[in-house]
Amino acid sequence: MHELFLIGNRILGTLETYGYKGYFVGGCVRDHHMQRAINDVDITTDALPDDIERIFERTVDVGKEHGTIIVLIDDIPFEVTTFRTESGYSDFRRPDQVSFTNQLNSDLERRDFTMNAMAMDENFEILDPYGGMKDIEEQVIRTVGCPEERFNEDALRMLRAARFAAHLEFHVAPETENAMAAHAQNLEFVAVERCVVELDKLYRGAGVKAAKALMVKTRLKAHLAFLENIGDEDFLDTDVRSLENEIALQMWRNPGLEPHLHELKLSNDMKREIKDTTRLIGMLHRPSTIKEVAYGHDMKILKNASEIVELNTFTESKEKKDLLKSAIELKPQLPISDISDINLDGNMLMQLFNARGGRWIRKVFSAVEEKILDGSLKNDTKIIMEWVEAHVEYEAGDIEITEE
Ligand code: ATP
Ligand code: MG
């Protein structure tokens, strides 16, 4: 039994001591049954949030109104959520009302797919009222109850179906898939941030290609920010392992997509990563040296671009792959990885030449940068200053560099 279940079992035991029932629930039970890796273990209980806070020593309120309290055992966080039912979804995305219940089955009934609607008790017995185990055996993703209703309640579930299809390499049950096709347009009501969480997971699954085909077939793709602007064929013929790389590659192919990037509401870091990757792929199509490629880009960007040209033959020639490979090898050996790593500061230059700041300082830095990168100058303040004294002439706000 996975260690997280053994530790989590102490929570079930404590709940029992106080007269409540607790179960492991959701993804962890599915993954345990499938003998897949387990990252986190969720618990569901008939204890109310206030009870949970009272019973356990270390808790964090992360959404009491939805019934969720984090309980820390040995510094490991466990989400403990009160059994609940949801009702009255009037906007396709969020229940109007969340009510607590003391019935495990009602809690399982509100869950999205049969494989996610199983619970496991303190003896590690699985409770499976909706046939999750059978569906797992048959590798089928099927909603709990009528798919039309379930997707009407929360349109995100359709994208979650595609995400699980990618992740587990399962197929979607025919009625569930038909309902996805019928309700795809309701995805437009779902907050883009929630969609991005699922897309991000989808792209990390082993079955991305099949999941993308499903998104085209059911027209989910046609109702997702940014992706809706990519032609179906372009969307289907890329081979990528992350959402970032999908976007970067599609933007390289079609620069007209860039104005839509903001629609995904990604973090600034992620947007920068994507744009840098797009730019690097473009750079590979112009003559550039290994050093320019290695020096000008973070390792993350080099690896993104390398993955893209490795997997997508239409972007590459052997030369480009090799250029990136060499750049990735060279990168850790470069004496500096950014101009800010140079051990020199502008004030020292102003003092040396008794001059005010200006563009000339940047020129000195560029000259020094080049020298350090080609190995002819050590990145040491004293040595750099000596070189500057010997080779830089300052006159009226400009400089001239004399080589020996
Ligand atoms: P993963 O291992 O990738 O986290 P997971 O099954 O744990 O997969 P989560 O998104 O963490 O997925 O959700 C936890 C559980 O909550 C699910 O297994 C499911 O039972 C339930 N759930 C999550 N989102 C929804 C939803 N939109 N509608 C209904 N039930 C949901
Ligand atoms: Mg989870």
Could you explain the architecture of this structure?
The chain contains 19 helices and 13 strands. With 404 residues, the protein is of the alpha+beta class. A seven-stranded mixed sheet has the order 3-4-5-2-1-8-9. The structure holds adenosine-5'-triphosphate and magnesium ion (MG). Magnesium ion is lined by residues 27, 40. Belongs to the tRNA nucleotidyltransferase/poly(A) polymerase family. GO terms for molecular function: CCA tRNA nucleotidyltransferase activity; metal ion binding; nucleotide binding; tRNA binding. Its EC number is 2.7.7.72. This is CCA tRNA nucleotidyltransferase.
Would you spell out the secondary-structure blueprint of this structure?
Layout: H1 3-17, E1 22-25, H2 27-33, E2 42-45, H3 49-55, E3 59-63, E4 68-73, E5 76-82, E6 84-87, E7 97-100, H4 104-109, E8 119-120, E9 126-127, H5 132-137, E10 140-141, H6 147-153, H7 156-168, E11 171-172, H8 174-183, H9 192-203, H10 208-217, H11 232-236, H12 243-253, H13 268-284, H14 290-296, H15 299-311, H16 318-330, H17 346-353, H18 359-373, H19 381-391, E12 392-395, E13 398-401
Parallel strand pairs: 2-5, 10-11
Antiparallel strand pairs: 1-2, 1-8, 3-4, 4-5, 6-7, 8-9, 12-13
The chain binds adenosine-5'-triphosphate and magnesium ion.
Magnesium ion (MG) binds next to loops.
